[in-house]
Amino acid sequence: MVAAKICGLKTAESIAAAVEYRADFIGFNFFRKSPRFVEPAQAGALGRAVPGSVLKTGLLVDDDDARIASILGSCPLDLLQLHGSETPERVTAIRAKFGLPVMKVIKVRDAADIARAADYEAVADRLLFDAQPPAEMKNPLPGGNAVSFDWTLLQGFRSRLPWMLSGGLTAGNLAEAVRQSGAPAVDVASGVEDRPGEKNLSKIKDFLEAARSL
Ligand SMILES: O=C(O)c1ccccc1NCC(=O)[C@H](O)[C@H](O)COP(=O)(O)O
User: Fold this and answer.
1) Where is the N-(5'phosphoribosyl) anthranilate isomerase (PRAI) domain (predicted)?
2) ipTM score over 0.90, yes or no
3) Which residues surround ligand 1 with Cβ inside 6 Å?
4) DSSP state of 37
5) In the chain, where the domains are located
6) What is the pTM of this model?
7) CA 32–ligand 1 middle distance (angstroms)
8) Strands (DSSP E) along the chain, which ranges?
9) Which end of the chain, N or C, is less packed with Cβ atoms under 10 Å?
10) Ligand 1 atom nearest 36 alpha carbon
């Protein structure tokens, strides 16, 4: 079994499906340009249906303290996912100011990107490896692009921090992704959707059942 996060949830039905099929994390996306964006107040209301056993994750991209404080005022969270270009110093500052665990996202194109995880080893609580959007991709978002990277780049990766694999995952490729990478946890947004931002409850079920079967 590998732990699983379903990211970009913004409806009661999709959250209920994630909880029913035992997601370990759910993600609220606070990046306004994303098709998965959810208003913090709405996320706060939705989050009240989430049991304490499922960690509510807030997805941020280079947000300042005022915005993070505003989000947390509307939506209690268990984990902050920093998906932008936050430096180790910025991660340290956010963690200290808000008193919440931080998952730093490392965007991967090649082996040098994996090595950059070491910069956050002493300051983050978790790591998430996501694909760097390909250079030719028109108007990519910082994440949620349904793009994967070479999972073998993570072979032999060791960290004192728990880490997740992300990027282009689906119920259909999950076993191979985990076999190649050795990931102990996985994360998905597009792979459980029919269209960007529109979650498919059966795909959520299939993804979470696939994660539990490994
Ligand atoms: O999902 C988004 O729209 C998004 C937008 C901006 C920054 C991050 C975003 N998603 C972050 C996630 O954790 C996604 O689950 C991850 O990038 C994987 O996405 P996908 O390849 O679509 O499964």
Assistant:
1) 4-209
2) yes
3) 7-8, 27, 29, 31, 34, 36, 59, 61, 83, 130, 141-147, 166-169, 187-191
4) B
5) 3-213
6) 0.97
7) 13
8) 3-7, 25-29, 55-60, 79-82, 102-108, 126-131, 163-166, 185-188, 193-195, 198-199
9) N
10) 3
